[in-house]
Design brief:
60s Ribosomal Protein L30, Chain: A, 2 domains, 6-stranded mixed sheet, alpha+beta
Length: 221
């Protein structure tokens, strides 16, 4: 068995060991596991791209991979699960989708019937209680970050839809900030009509596409 294979096996075992240490916090376990897995990937890349000095390339790749693995990704901690449960309860019966994404973010998918009227970006009255509950939850969990993304249907041109989608995201951000959430925790973006989730050829489909998505994440530290 080559030295590289032995090293990779050892790193893989280290990752398993880190994930199972009883005295580590969840953040420490996930960060440690990420570092070990990143080291494995980095070692493979370094070995594969090495020239004459394969040993140094493998070691360098492992070090870079460990740093990337430790720094990247999001946690799904007990706090995140608590926020998900709280938002599920707060949005029950409203049509708002609450889910955990594949990269461990909490996603709120807010449809047009409770978010914004056609062509407008002012907060509708029936959206306010949801944002009130969201602001309270965010203030209870100050380590999380928020990304708000606005969408439109395909009616109108990009010149209209792009700023409208940004303004919808900004309206949500401003509401949360007014209710105590730090502005530097919130990023916004507008996608116009470029990311439909339903058929824009029908009125029902266009209504689904006019939406706001809110992503809440707890960065790995």
């Amino acid at each position: 068995m080559s030295k590289l294979v032995i090293s990779l096996v050892a790193l893989g075992l280290a990752a398993n060991g880190l994930s199972g240490c009883a005295n580590m916090s969840e953040t420490q376990r996930d960060t440690g596991t990420g570092a070990a897995i990143g080291a494995v990937a980095g070692a493979v890349i370094g070995r594969a791209t090495a020239g004459g000095n394969k040993g140094r390339s493998t070691a360098t790749g492992a070090a870079v991979g460990a740093a990337v693995g430790a720094a990247g990704g999001y946690l799904w901690s007990q706090r995140m699960q608590q926020q998900k449960a709280a938002m599920e309860q707060a949005t029950q019966g409203t049509g708002v989708g609450v889910s955990q994404t594949s990269d461990n973010q909490l996603k709120l998918d807010i449809p047009s019937d409770i978010s914004f009227d056609v062509g407008r970006y002012d907060i509708k009255p029936n959206m306010a209680p949801l944002l009130d509950r969201l602001a309270a939850s965010l203030n209870q969990h100050p380590v999380t970050t928020v990304t708000v993304i606005g969408h439109t249907d395909s009616t109108g041109s990009d010149a209209i839809n792009d700023p409208l989608s940004v303004n919808r995201a900004a309206a949500v951000r401003d509401y949360l900030v007014a209710h105590g959430v730090a502005a530097n925790r919130i990023a916004i973006d507008g996608r116009g009509a470029r990311q439909p989730v339903a058929d824009n050829a029908t009125a029902a489909g266009r209504a689904i596409n006019r939406r706001v998505e809110i992503f809440i994440a707890e960065p790995a530290r």
